[in-house]
Amino acid sequence: MLYMTRMDVAFPPHLSAAQIADFQAREKEYSGNLQREGTIVGIWRIVGEYANHCLFDVPDNDTLHEVLSGFPMFPYMKIKVTPLAKHPNSIS
Amino acid sequence: MLYMTRMDVAFPPHLSAAQIADFQAREKEYSGNLQREGTIVGIWRIVGEYANHCLFDVPDNDTLHEVLSGFPMFPYMKIKVTPLAKHPNSIS
Amino acid sequence: MLYMTRMDVAFPPHLSAAQIADFQAREKEYSGNLQREGTIVGIWRIVGEYANHCLFDVPDNDTLHEVLSGFPMFPYMKIKVTPLAKHPNSIS
Amino acid sequence: MLYMTRMDVAFPPHLSAAQIADFQAREKEYSGNLQREGTIVGIWRIVGEYANHCLFDVPDNDTLHEVLSGFPMFPYMKIKVTPLAKHPNSIS
Amino acid sequence: MLYMTRMDVAFPPHLSAAQIADFQAREKEYSGNLQREGTIVGIWRIVGEYANHCLFDVPDNDTLHEVLSGFPMFPYMKIKVTPLAKHPNSIS
Amino acid sequence: MLYMTRMDVAFPPHLSAAQIADFQAREKEYSGNLQREGTIVGIWRIVGEYANHCLFDVPDNDTLHEVLSGFPMFPYMKIKVTPLAKHPNSIS
Amino acid sequence: MLYMTRMDVAFPPHLSAAQIADFQAREKEYSGNLQREGTIVGIWRIVGEYANHCLFDVPDNDTLHEVLSGFPMFPYMKIKVTPLAKHPNSIS
Amino acid sequence: MLYMTRMDVAFPPHLSAAQIADFQAREKEYSGNLQREGTIVGIWRIVGEYANHCLFDVPDNDTLHEVLSGFPMFPYMKIKVTPLAKHPNSIS
Amino acid sequence: MLYMTRMDVAFPPHLSAAQIADFQAREKEYSGNLQREGTIVGIWRIVGEYANHCLFDVPDNDTLHEVLSGFPMFPYMKIKVTPLAKHPNSIS
Amino acid sequence: MLYMTRMDVAFPPHLSAAQIADFQAREKEYSGNLQREGTIVGIWRIVGEYANHCLFDVPDNDTLHEVLSGFPMFPYMKIKVTPLAKHPNSIS
């Protein structure tokens, strides 16, 4: 089941560069695993912003929340979730 | 080059059911062609709305505008375009 | 799987009182069936507005869109869908 | 008398992990009591956000404000209250 | 139990001056009755707008919706309802 | 001359509980005096929010600004002022 | 007593050019009279919009509403009123 | 003196295709003249929308309003004007 | 050439009362000079807010930006600039 | 390929004047280089704001994101990107 998300990241000012780098490294690993297992089927940077669009394929709403709240940077992200259905004009 | 779009459709009240059906038939054919040629690489219905998210792969901005303004229902659509870049965490 | 919706109804000015009454009668029947079969598990009027909050229990996103777009008054409704997950503090 | 609420939580950056955990523990107990006594008749996590939809059944506005402002995390929550009435299409 | 409302009126363009005058006459009578019976305890014009603030005293949410949806001009009004509680600094 | 206000309070995170309590005590006294002298003719808590609706009766705009900016918590309040006129349907 | 207003004009599509010209002629006369009597002390076109900023000097809120609702084009205007007070840095 | 504008076009539904084509032809001529005389120094289509960004070079505010309100499609355009100043980092 | 501005002031929480008083004193002097030289032709407090409307008369956009960015409290102000043109109904 | 951007700068309160001056110096150099190489083809200050409009000419979305995220003050900027296409009325 597919969901489109938009995630915007905003670190609080008190985080050090090292702390931020650590968050980003763990985020990269977490995100990579989700891609390898097919949970994230698309991830794109939004040009000019510290933000992304992500396409998730999960069995249900509860799994999606579990996955999203597990992102290391979840406390610093604003996430908007859009549930998707098959489009009648889709040929796939 | 990838762009995410969100398209919202709103027909004016004076269109007849037949006119709307004709628009939708032509839209389906136009959209199908774009998918077969690889210009649209993803199209999804937004649940509960007469709207979609569409992922376009085009060589440049001019081509994208030409494609979007060629939709039969373009005069009745509100389109928001988000240019995308490669995400540093993407494994693809 | 649960989703909260908010639906706002706005009829175009050219509809007659009889047409509106017909829409409302068909809407009542459609809504009643969804409640009897357990698809709608809660429906409430928002005080002072021609709008409601509705709680849906459906197997997936596609079913929800099929149900929502099947409402007789769907063309005259603005629907916002919020996917829900189990709350960690819920005792049910 | 029913009210739908949406609560969004945002902790200020100076709170420690221990302080947050303490808030969450007291919140869970407070929320559980409200559910057991029938004041909260539904509580759901909004997918991807530190937020919830809550359905309250209280005798009047004053009681609702007393209950809401009693949440341990009230100072860190943004609450939107929507009063509900019986829906004419409700079969319950 | 008190509620503050804001009502904004917008007539569709096809209404004649006579029809509007008729609506306004019935509205005045309806509003006057609500004031005499104590349901409306305050009504004020918002300067420069076809809008008002109204303070309602009703036993519950259902009654408020019944009263509001009974306004002759209800189909042409956008109503925002704010439930009120006793203020701790109020001396009344 | 009447004005409706909405005041939203937000304390900065560095204030201590004692400082907040002191602000609230002075606010209560200031508000009580305004009520006793007839400057505030109504004050209500907005359910679920650290906010109020207040109805002021003052001779002119300058007096209203002087009164509002004299609130002890003025630096921490966001105030929206709506000038009111007599409503043609008012029977008072 | 001073108030700043912003007025945005939007004619409904069914008005003829002659009707619009008539409205504009009566508006010009009405506005000129208000300027000559000192009720309007400043009127400026907002560049690129069918809108203006207007500075009114009136004895009270009721007078301002009477003046504003008397504009021939009042039914086609959206008006926002901002009450003004003497600025502490003003040298006038 | 430079100003950036954004213009959004929305034709009312009652205009015929011929009327729209006539508006567009006159618009093209008007816009071309402004470019040739150096009043418009840049004009770009916003991808996916019936809208543009335009960079104007005019002697003053009054001239800009005269130019903008002279567009044949001015009644059907929503225009937002942003006055520009020299940027300290500009090398031109 | 005239421009209407709205300026909203928000001091960061770490400024001391003395620092704020110093800013305000320098602001008063700067503003007074601008009024005496005719650059500011009107300045009004917005009732209930730490904000003002200001009417500027300057030769061009660059001068206005220079004047605005010279305000001692500029880093703590949010400024919205509206360019004005002569109104066709103005009798001045 | 052209893109219009709007960049708004907001420094966090803990930065010293020296740190800000250093950021601004590096920003000026970075921006100057982009102008000299033809990546930035226009940069303008928005009057009254710490913000600019910038016109970029880059080969693709990825390059634009690389350029934008390379600005020394990128972490303190909110950037909105609008992709541009050739306008049918453009004579250039």
Automatic annotation (TrEMBL), chains A, B, C, D, E, F, G, H, I, J:
Presence of keyword Amino-acid biosynthesis: no
A Pfam family: MIase
Primary enzyme class: isomerase
Key words of the record: Aromatic hydrocarbons catabolism, Isomerase
Subunit structure: Homodecamer.
Residue ranges constituting the Muconolactone isomerase domain according to the UniProt record: 1-89
Catalytic reactions on record: (S)-muconolactone = (4,5-dihydro-5-oxofuran-2-yl)-acetate
Lineage of producing organism: Bacteria, Bacillati, Actinomycetota, Actinomycetes, Micrococcales
Family: Belongs to the muconolactone Delta-isomerase family.
Species for this entry: Brevibacterium daeguense
EC number(s) recorded for this UniProt protein: 5.3.3.4
Pathway listed: Aromatic compound metabolism; beta-ketoadipate pathway; 5-oxo-4,5-dihydro-2-furylacetate from catechol: step 3/3
Positions of transmembrane segments: none
Name of the protein this chain belongs to: Muconolactone Delta-isomerase
Isomerase among keywords: yes
